[in-house]
Design brief:
Chain lengths: 417, 392
């Protein structure tokens, strides 16, 4: 009768179950006043991972960061110092829960964490997500969630397993948790701009950081540290960054695209220090019903920036970041919490309420749409959704080990495989 | 000139010029091709040989009306012709068009009509003079003379698809010819023979080729755009043999109505090819290249439109004979500037406004060249391939 309560159930059912469990164990009659802490482990201690851990901590009561994993100990120590510096009581990272190396994620998953934040370069995401779900952990994972179609299929499958196991999965496509977006897109779905006939999305910006190769760094170490610039790690910037805007268009249109025609190239950022990715893409996505959406993304210093989405309907237009124009004009004037924090709040609340969110399929779809655009540009071909969804294109390196690793050639449309 | 004979001179004897002259001869009775001009004698002779092989009616090119050299256009214009066909590389068009109009000649000119804003303004000004002088000016944007396009776009303008909310246009193809440098060719000769690949001669392929689709866009939209944001690059067709142009562009054109049109153009071998324009409105969709309207006023063009390459000349000649000369100078200048706008938005990485482009001082003629008295000793420097965000 005193069935063992798993840690996960304990976390989920909160104080009532905790009280019962405590009572049944007979060890104490003192009732906990708050939900038990949710124990969080961070896999991937870079800028985004540190940020996500902090956002998670600040999102709700009773969050503890207890474990860290990174391929590189220096990055791990940096994150540990950063977290300690927050002066937050929820930071409880003991040395024995700090793991480095390619298998650091496995070691972290073997600890008693309830929730893992997956924030490594995206190329590792399918592997880490699968392992986390297999280990029965709730997951917050940064976007994008894969770099190739086999990776997408692994994320979708593990997402299904998560559903069966009652595990929560939230992705770092934070606009989905941003009140102005949520409100605007609800209105679009309710017909505020009539029938949607076109859409546009753009992520045009300058350059980003790069990691210059240091003496003694193997190919693998240099590539992983300089991961933005290798398609097997980042998926290229259309996948790594522009996925945010593509996700909004898919959200507004209610379905993923059916095909894509695209152009792109590596025009300015051509130094080998920047790997082999492109610096610009433009995609004509076709959606069901013959609706087309335009996608532009560019990373070139000195050019004009624009990060935006636009949804065009028969009766109006919308900037989904908070406004409707036309007969049913409207502007979001409510309060909006920092979406990077809100996404963790929503995740934690869903776990505690026993109604776990599961965004795995959603973010997998948006990631695949970005991959579709990339491959249409890389090959110069028109590619359908079904083709990319079933494609065998696998960018995984032969082995996850420090040592030699060739940089693939820059894609040449018309001749790419 | 009711049904009088029209004496035609061809300036620029490449394949497009030769084709235009043939189309002109076939377009109406009473047309005589009497003069040819080209920078190079071999091109002129090749064209002349082709004409005689075709045994076309109205062919009457005497040796003394064959002009060779960079100034051949001027001598042809002075040789007693009524109508000149301007079909040299586009970089020469403003100079040749101005000279033709100044000399009181009717003009058929191939698209595009300039490569830079300075050239576009010269076309606009000479086009105004043509109007004052009642000279006919027709451009080689042949879809304007294609019944399928005319009927589709008339329906669009009549409201068949409601208000246009968005559109797309594409000119995605494989690669084109190229002229490899031959021994003894000066820099200038090589560039002029290999003109497609030099910005100052062709305007890049978005201007040289995609102007067709952009012209259809402007036609359907009722005028040129107000702004462009673009990307582009030179990804596959690299190397000095291909001069300094790009091999792909993508432009987001914004119109005064707030509607946007996506423009894609690419010249890459082995890539997906597609040429067309599509518009979506509040009540339906239109595809002028397929002659189709979808929606409440669904319609599709039946039958076969007459060859627009010929019809454009028929329309020009008829307008001359009726004393109501067509004047397409502004229309083609605007479509050319639309393409230049997209190109410059891609080259610079900046958002560029129509008014800004229209007033721009950008002049692509290499400073070492004097187009009015070109000579092989002049060495046209090849500008570096544009790097967005980096001033040239």
């Amino acid at each position: 009768m005193a069935r063992r309560i798993t840690r996960r159930e304990f976390v989920r059912t909160g104080s009532a179950a905790a009280a019962a469990a405590t009572f049944l164990s007979g060890s104490s009659f003192s009732l906990p006043r708050r939900a038990p802490a949710l124990r969080v482990g961070l896999v991937g201690c870079g800028g985004r991972g540190k940020g996500a851990a902090e956002d998670c901590l600040r999102s709700s009561e009773g969050i503890e960061i207890v474990a860290l994993a990174d391929l590189f100990s220096d990055r791990l120590e940096d994150a540990r110092g950063f977290l300690a510096g927050l002066g937050h009581e929820g930071v409880r990272v003991e040395s024995e829960r700090c793991f480095s190396g390619f298998d650091a994620y496995e070691k972290l998953l073997a600890t008693d964490v309830d929730l893992v934040i997956l924030a490594t370069p995206p190329g590792f995401r399918p592997l880490h997500f699968e392992a986390a779900i297999a280990a029965g952990k709730n997951v917050f994972m940064e976007k994008p969630v894969a770099v190739d179609p086999p990776g997408i299929r692994r994320v979708i499958a593990a997402g299904e397993t998560a559903r069966e196991k009652g595990l929560a999965v939230v992705a770092g496509t934070q606009r989905r948790h941003q009140a102005p977006y949520v409100e605007t897109i609800r209105r679009i779905h309710e017909g505020a701009i009539g029938r949607v006939v076109s859409a546009r999305c753009t992520w045009n910006q300058g350059g980003l950081w790069k990691h210059d190769r240091r003496e003694g760094e193997s190919d693998m170490e240099w590539q992983v540290r300089n991961w933005l610039y290798f398609t097997w790690l980042s998926g290229d910037h259309i996948v790594e960054q522009h996925v945010h805007n593509i996700d909004v268009v898919i959200w507004a249109l209610g379905a993923p695209p059916v095909s894509a025609v695209a152009v792109g190239g590596r025009q300015v950022r051509t130094d080998p220090a920047y790997g082999h990715i492109y610096d610009h893409f433009a995609v004509d996505f076709e959606f069901p019903g013959g609706v087309h959406a335009t996608s532009f993304c560019r990373q070139m210093p000195g050019t004009d920036g624009l990060i935006a989405e636009r949804i065009v309907g028969t009766e109006g237009e919308s900037d989904p970041a908070g406004s409707i124009e036309g007969a049913r004009a409207w502007k979001f004037e409510g309060k909006s919490r920092n979406p990077y924090v809100q996404e963790h709040d929503d995740l934690v609340a869903s776990i505690r309420a026993g109604r776990p969110l599961n965004e795995a399929r959603q973010v997998a779809q948006s990631t695949l749409a970005a991959i579709l655009g990339r491959e249409a540009a890389y090959t110069g071909k028109r590619i359908t959704w079904d083709e990319i969804a079933t494609s065998d294109l696998d960018l995984t390196p032969r082995a996850y080990a420090f040592g030699p690793l060739e940089v693939p050639p820059v894609a040449r449309p018309g001749s790419a495989s | 000139m009711a049904s009088e004979e029209i004496r035609v001179g061809l300036v620029g004897c490449g394949s497009r010029g030769t084709g235009a002259a043939e189309d002109c001869l076939k377009s109406a009775p009473g047309i005589r091709l009497v003069a040819l001009a080209d920078a190079f004698s071999d091109r002129l002779e090749r064209s002349r040989r082709y004409f005689s092989e075709q045994r076309l009616d109205g062919l009457d090119v005497a040796d003394e009306r064959c002009f060779v050299g960079y100034d051949a256009y001027r001598r042809l214009i002075e040789s007693g012709v009524d109508l000149v066909l301007l079909a040299t590389p586009p970089g020469f068009r403003p100079l040749h068009f101005e000279a033709a109009i100044a000399a009181g000649k009717h003009v058929f000119m191939e698209k595009p009509v300039a490569v830079d804003p300075v050239g576009v303004r010269r076309i606009l000004a000479a086009g105004e003079q043509a109007r004052e002088k009642e000279l006919g000016v027709v451009a080689g944007t042949l879809y304007r003379h294609d019944r399928k396009f005319q009927e589709t776009i008339r329906r669009v303008h009549d409201g068949a698809i409601g208000d246009i909310r968005a559109g797309r246009c594409a000119y995605n193809t494989g690669t084109l010819w190229r002229h490899d440098r031959k021994p003894g060719e000066s820099d200038l000769e090589w560039q002029v023979r290999n003109w497609y690949y030099f910005d100052w001669l062709s305007g890049d392929h978005i201007v040289e080729q995609h102007v067709h689709t952009l012209d259809v866009m402007n036609w359907a939209m009722g005028g040129p755009p107000v702004r462009a944001i673009a990307t582009g690059g030179r990804q596959v067709r690299v190397g000095p043999a291909h001069g300094n142009i790009y091999d792909h562009f993508a432009v987001d054109y914004e119109f005064a109505s707030g509607a946007h049109v996506l423009s894609l153009c690419r010249q890459i071998a082995g890539a997906h090819g597609e040429v067309g324009a599509w518009f979506v409105g509040t009540k339906g969709r239109a595809a002028p290249y397929s002659g189709r309207i979808e929606g409440e006023s669904a319609w599709s063009f039946e039958g076969k439109a007459p060859n627009a390459y010929v019809v454009e000349h028929t329309d020009l000649v008829r307008s001359l004979r009726e004393g109501k000369p067509l004047n397409e100078a502004r229309q083609i200048a605007e479509s050319t500037l639309t393409a230049i706008l997209g190109r410059e938005a891609a080259y610079t990485g900046k958002s560029v406004a129509w008014e800004e482009m229209l007033a721009s001082d950008l002049d692509l003629t290499p400073p070492s060249l004097d187009l009015e008295s070109l000579a092989d000793r002049m060495v046209p420097e090849v500008r570096p391939v544009p790097m967005p965000g980096v001033a040239r």
